[in-house]
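Dear support,

I submitted the protein below through the web form. The confirmation email said the job was done, but the results page showed an empty box. After a refresh the structure appeared. I'm attaching both so you can tell me whether what I see now is the final result or a partial one.
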Amino acid sequence: MIQSFNPPNMSDFQKRALIAGIVLLVALVASAFFNSHQFFQAYLIGWTFWTGITIGSLALLMLQHLTGGGWGLVIRRSLEAATRVLPLMAILFIPIILGAHTIYHHWTEPTEEVVKFKTPYLNLPFFTIRAVIYFAIWGTLAFLLNKWSLAQDRTADNRYTKNMRVLAGPGMVALIFSVTFASVDWYMSLEPEWFSTIYGFIYVAAWSLSALAFVIAVMARLSREEPMKRIVAPLHFHDLGKLLLALVMLWAYFAFSQYLIIWSGNLPEEIGWYLKRTHGVWGAIIITIGILHFAAPFLFLLSRSIKRNPRKLVVIAAVILVMRGVDLLWMLVPAFKEHHWIWLDVISLLGFGGLWLAFFAWQLGKRSLIPINDPQFESTLEQMHAGGH
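What the results page shows now:
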């Protein structure tokens, strides 16, 4: 029996990530003195990408409690650590509210009649209240799941296992609805004259996909060293690869469905959103997204051998993570007028990334890497010894 599942020492990585994050975020803040519009827009992009991994991890955590399986057992602590970064991201949302008149000037100072009609919903006080509600929902779910998981480790009481499973069902519904409304508030409202009923579901799928790609990369790294080297098997990566393929297809389905419905309807108030994003450099970028975000991962993930090989699977996961950032730029940047400092968006993505990763590594080091008192722990070990390697 494996006795110790203490995480490896990540203090050096944590320090490097924190220093890099702070330096880049200071550079980002400094840009506000030259162009506040560019600063707030870049800030929103960087914050969104890493918040997406946080909330996506919460979705995957609840999915694991609902479905069970060894794949979820080996990544649960990584998912839980990611959800515990949520308080940091909630605090970092405050500048977005403070800069709302710059970011969301289309509805904070409406001039078009169609936008004025939406002011009962699109106004700053109600916008802030809704944001508080979203973070309260996510924070409550993350708090309870982390609390009960730790209690399960300490007491081996199956009551906590049941609590997590019972919460996961309604919690998943609440998360899907809250992410849908949050995406409407924070992103679709950048162009308040435009609307799409599928837009929110694209973010639900995209954030879950980002989170899964991230934890695959984390597991590939942790599985090189003890203690995870002795328990993470190719079978686990195979299951994670299958889930990654499913989420790639789900994201592509939502994204293409929105395009097909809007383009076939050919309504002037709807197709303008795509016209901005299919001409010039954005047209080349969407082709790149189609190839590297869907076609290539889809084809490679059909291979059983690739899914069972952590080195190959992590390359696919890394490409998907990069393309998630590119796709986010494709969706948000055309909504901003005179947004030319793309390099500032990259600084924002990397700066928030350094800060997020430092906080994640700190949280990951606080608990055992495997929930040893979970009822599925023994069966996972049996699978490994029965041919998981």
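Response: this is the final, complete result; the empty box was a page-load delay. The two ends are 17 Å apart (CA to CA).
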